[in-house]
Amino acid sequence: MTIYSIIFYLLAFLILVTTGIAITRRNLVHVVIYLIFSFFGSAMLFYLFGAPFLAVLEVIIYAGAIMVLFLFVVIMMRAETGNERLFALRQWLPVAIFGLLYIAIGMGIITADPNSRITLKTAQAAPKVFGQFIFENHWLSIEIVSLLLLVALVGALVIGRRSRRPPAAQTTNGEL
Amino acid sequence: MIVPFGHVLILAGLLFLMGILCVVARRSLIMILLGIEIMLNAVAILLVGSSLLWQHLEGQAIVLFVFAIAGAEVSIGLALIVWAYRRTGSMDPSDYNLLK
Q1: CB distance B91–A62 less than 8 Å?
Q2: What's the CA gap between A47 and A33, in Å, rounded?
Q3: Which of A69, A146, B16, B69 is deepest in the core (most CB within 10 A)?
């Protein structure tokens, strides 16, 4: 039991507990805050696995940009899920059965896989090496992804713009 | 020496399962989108772990693109949610019945 494995188990516990709390809260602001904790844990896990650049990106993009965007929308909409109806109990039974079945099969696959017994060795990919690898082998994908982000930006602007025409429910009252 | 790779698989699998549970069980569009984010994060953890297992940078490269796609998906998804909320005043997908 090295210091690395202790850190891994602590982080895994932290990530699972904060995510588990997050998906069961009613208040959406609490959900987002707990998920920020979870993503910080994932960022530290990335650092432990030797990906410092991805750890920084996880903090900036996931815990920073995406979660703050969610927080803005939650606060702006005053989204309340207090009266949220969950499924009836008899609908939960088949879900639980099939879920447990899939967990059992997954555990079987993981224990049968010879790779899963290999112990991970510590290594680190410096950001410079990673950047050179990306731009030597995946430059076309980088261009495509940048185009995708541009399309997403324009699309979000077009969708989010307030339309001039009143919605259909109001025009049917005679002023059409 | 960190841990056996199987433990990383178990962690990512449990996280992915939590994401599925969030998507299936919650009745708010925001929670559904957050569940997808949790699933993407689980996949990213697994990819970085397998990149360490095979000592190859390919897994980390895929994670970079997963991040970009998650950003694009969340911006479009939240814009759609805001649009639907303005139109119907609700975030419950079962209230969207204008086509009926």
Answers
A1: no
A2: 22
A3: B16
